[in-house]
Amino acid sequence: MSGDTIFDKILRGEIPSKEIYSDAEYYAFADIRPQAPTHVLIIPRKPIPKVSDATDADRMLLGGLILRANEIAKQLGLAEEGYRLVINCGHHGGQEVYHLHLHLLGGRQMSWPPG
Ligand code: AMP
Question: Fewest CB within a 10 Å sphere: which of 9, 71, 96, 106?
Answer without folding.
Answer: 96
